[in-house]
Amino acid sequence: MAEVNGGFAGKVLRVDLSTGKISFDDSVEKYREVLGGTGIGYKVLWEEVPAGTGPFDGANKVVFATGVLAGTGVPCNGRTAVTTLFPSCWPKPLVASGHMGGQFAAKLKYAGYDAVIVEGKADRPVWLFIRDGRVEIRDAGHLWGAGIRRTTLAISQEMGPESVVAAIGQAGEHLVPLSVVMNSVSHSAGGVGAVMGAKNLKAIGVQGSGSVRIAGDKSEWERLVKFHLSILGGNNQHVVPSFPHPQSEYYNPSSRWVGAPGKRWGAAEPPIEINGGLYDLNRIAFRSNSGAFYLGEQAWQYTVRGNGCTGCPLRCHTILKVPSVAAKYGIREVAQNTCGGMVFGRSFFKQLSGGLFGPASLEACMVGMHMADDLGVWCNYGQLQRDLIKLYYDGTLKAELGSAEYASFPWDKYENGDPAFLFEILPRIARRQGELGHALGLGTGGLLAHWSIPEEAWTHDAACGYWKLGHPKHHANEDDGQCGVIINTQYNRDPQCHSHVNFIRNGLPLAVQKKLATEIWGAPEAVDGVGDYTPMNIHKARRARWSLVRKELHDSLGLCNWMGPWVASPLKERGYTGDDSLESRFFSLATGQRLSREDLDRIGERIFVLHRALTIRDMGSVEMRSRHDLTPPWIYQAPSGAQAFTKGSIRMDSQDIAKAMELFYEVMGWEKATGAPTAEAYTRLGLQYVAEGLAVKNLVPGGKR
Amino acid sequence: MIGQERHILCQALAEAIREASAAGQLMGRGALLAELRARNLLGPDEPNDPDMGALLAETLATYRDLAALTSISGEILYHVPALLSHTYAGILDRKASPLLLIAEEVRRNSAEYPRPVPLELFEQSPFDLLPERIELSLKTMAGSPEFEDISFITTSSGAVYLFSSRHLERPYAVFLAERADTGLLLNP
After folding, report:
1. What is the pLDDT of residues A252-310, one digit of tens each?
2. Do the Cβ atoms of A382 and B188 come within 8 Å?
3. Which chain B residues are closer than 8 Å to A278 by Cβ?
4. Which residues in B lie closer than 8 A to residue A509 (C-beta atoms)?
5. What is the pTM of this model?
6. Which of A315, A570, A598, B164 gets the highest tally of CB atoms within 10 A of its CB?
């Protein structure tokens, strides 16, 4: 095997909170075959956490792992995967991961570590101090009960301004399954806060004085970074602006590239006006404004600037400063987040005065960020809010809650879209107070079981957005037909995959998208127009496979799958082509180990299949197709009565989806009947040891079941 | 005019077109002739029109970064697509006729992407139409067979979108409008 001279920090830190033992593994020697991130997480769980372990057991482990490209100059590199047994996965906890951006990944690398494995359970609240080679388990008694902001401040004061803190809030402490760990003020990994809480681990503070070595030619590295910058679009790799511009042939009013010349960051001191050329590499940060995208024009006057992850020029966490909202609700003037985190508060309300771009929406967003990002409550990709809406409006809450508790909520404020309602509901979720606070915090699966509500009540309701295993859809058929459906069947939480949807929503005309699809996936039929779906074909299955493999690859390299892959670009002179080999070119230069695109994709597939194997092992069944890869009935229904493949309908056809799954299993080399990887598939990916482990339990197709 | 002189004139024309495109302007024959005079490349004894048609054809053939479009007035206009894209150039040209400006933009969006466009788009740069002007244009269109393909959709939130029935069926346009209006905002 080729020598690795860069990219990796070199060590994996292992902390046993039960014994206080701190030890180190050689990351290249032990984990290079799975790169980092989710790869290390899955491998640790496979090797060290036995089937049947509960998420809050001391035997469960939580793996904070970044990747080879984290902490380098590669754009969009700030990701840390946090992998563990998920308490919100229902009816049985299974492996999953949350992903956080921010500065944690880079600092961990600079301290000398590719990953931190936390095991055991402390007998009292502690936090983990990491400063280069110095690692200590410190008392967190004074921090227990505090929110994320206060915890971050206290540890930062202790460690110094160059440190980064990843902390849980009250939700994690109270073992609320819907809880996060958060670093750098607003960058959270959902679903894992309670696992830390169960270990009495309040936070990890990390400071590193090192750097990441790049093995390859430095000028070649710089050229590649510049090239990567040149093919970046706006947030989520939307490659055309939302406004017509002299330099752009195309535009799309729905694009997240909203920074038009003349717009102003009105709350910056002094205000900053967007200027310069559309493609200037030192103005990429002007392109994104999550506030303006989600809250409309009003957000510009409150925008301080964009914030974001290490090495990312996009700055998708928009900082908003709204003194009037602060004065009205007694909250901080400043809040920052992106996407689901930014709209956390407003998503609780069925209607808001003035609509999504009105003042009530802005207030709800500010209050929501203020509270959720301190209490550490996780939205489960919006399912928490949709659950409350459904439970309230269908009368379940009135029936299930005692009259005193029901009366304790200001439902008039809820119905009127008054953000003050958030002060009532969110602390109760974070502290498991009362029947409703407890039930909502369990996650959808837990609350359905808690109140004996049949899952079908959710799986038949398209408005609910629920998919399976206690978790919602995440860019499924509403965005990408069968490809989206396949992707949504594969994980034990929402899939968090953006490889497919970033292409679908990139804003290019359909003919250009089909041209690119032909180049990348072999045929124009790999892509449909949204809501103009055609029957399943092999090219879509290949695209689904590519999407999943690239997602795992990004999660294991420390790259952002919310931004990548970069197969489309804003560049007319390139025919809007991006670069499908960017990841492998960066990997080769960083490590000195030359891997082709196909080589690296094979590793991504290995990681993805390792996740599959873990799921099979912990479910104790090889019958993935019938028991795991489920689709909710709502995808086969249309309120209008439209048939599948009718223009303007996202309705799927059940036989076509059955075919889609078979084609997907075929391109993965899995058994069609069960949807489980075959022994040959494991062997092809260098996972013989996994196949052998599963074979002992009769969990490989073809063996005794 | 000898070859060397023609070469200098073509070069000057290309420069003038590039400068105009960088400033967001299209150049017609008259403006380019004035540019040549302003640059003292045409003597006082030169004819008023030194075979501009042939000069411009030669300029286009020589400098491949340049492009020409036929204006809605019938005039040939010149630009550099890298600085002033075909799309943007078309919008600038059609600004003289709000009816065509709206209709052609709606048709192009319906045909190419495909998608309906929000009415408010036309209040923004580079369209810069006043709401009253948009309303008047739409009323005029409604009574004109030339624009009978331009149709409206009002989404569930009350936003108005326009599409061309030549390129988009109404049910599909409704779906796309709802998705663009609130669907994408509620599906982060």
Report:
1. 999 999 999 999 999 999 999 999 999 999 999 999 999 999 999 999 999 999 999 99
2. yes
3. none
4. 112-113
5. 0.97
6. A570
Domain boundary among A162, A186, A207: A207
A326 token code pair: 């602060």
Best A235, A239, A242, A247 member to test B by mutation, with max B CBs in 10 Å, is A247
Using a 10 angstrom Cβ sphere, with 0-12 exposed, 13-18 middle and 19 or more buried, the burial of residue A160 is exposed
Contact B114 A529 (CB under 8 A): yes
Domains of chain B: 3-92 (1.10.10), 97-183 (1.10.10)
Q: Do B175 and A531 touch (CB under 8 A)?
A: yes
List the Cα angle A82/A88/A90 in 5-degree steps. Answer: 130
Taking an 8 Å cut-off on Cβ atoms, the answer to whether B176 and A253 are in contact is no
Q: Report the pLDDT averaged over residues A667-683.
A: 98
- Of A247, A343, A648, which is closest to B174 when you measure between CB atoms? A648
Say yes or no for a CB contact (<8 Å) between B117 and A253. Answer: yes
Label residues A248-277 b or e (16+ Cβ within 10 Å = b).
bbbbbbbbbbbbbbebebbbeeeebebeee
Per-residue confidence of chain B (188 residues) as pLDDT tens digits? 666 789 999 999 999 999 999 999 999 999 999 999 999 998 766 666 678 999 999 999 999 999 999 999 999 999 999 999 999 999 999 999 999 999 999 999 999 999 999 999 999 999 999 999 999 999 999 999 999 999 999 999 999 999 999 999 999 999 999 999 999 999 99
Domain span at residue A103 reads: 11-207
Helix, strand or coil for residue A176? coil
- Beta-carbon contacts of residue A11 (< 8 Å; ≥ 6 apart): A24, A25, A26, A27, A112, A113, A114
Chain B neighbors of A506, CB-CB under 8 A: none
CB spacing of A529 vs B183 below 8 angstroms: no
The position carrying tokens 């290995």 is A606
**B124 and chain A: CB distance < 8 Å anywhere?**
yes
A545 token code pair: 């496979």
Q: Is B118 on the interface with A (CB under 8 A)?
A: yes
Q: For B188, which of A245, A343, A355 is closest by C-beta distance?
A: A343
Is residue A129 one of the residues assigned to a domain? yes
B24 interfacial to chain A (CB closer than 8 Å): yes
- Domain assignment of residue A260, yes or no: no
**Number of folded domains in chain A?**
2
Give the integer Cα–Cα distance in Å for A421 and A416: 10
Pick the closest to residue A310 from A91, A100, A474 (CA basis). A100
- The number of C-beta contacts closer than 8 angstroms across A and B is 89
A246 near B CB under 8 A:
yes
Q: Is residue B20 within 8 Å of B80, Cβ to Cβ?
A: no
- Whether residues A294 and B185 touch (CB distance < 8 A) is answered with yes
CATH code for the domain of A539: 1.10.599
CA angle A532, A535, A538 (to 5 degrees): 120
Q: In this complex, do A531 and B187 lie within 8 Å of one another by their Cβ atoms?
A: no
Q: Is residue A243 part of a domain?
A: no
A5-46 pLDDT, tens per residue? 899 999 999 999 999 999 999 999 999 999 999 999 999 999
CATH number at residue A120: 3.60.9.10
Chain B touched by A355 (CB under 8 Å)? yes
Q: Would you say residue A670 lies in a domain? A: yes
CA dihedral A343, A347, A352, A357 (to 10 degrees): 30
A-chain residue closest to B112, CA distance: A509
**A290 CA to centre of own chain:** 17
Residue listed under structure tokens 């890869």: A629
Q: Which of A159, A181, A207 is the last residue of a domain?
A: A207
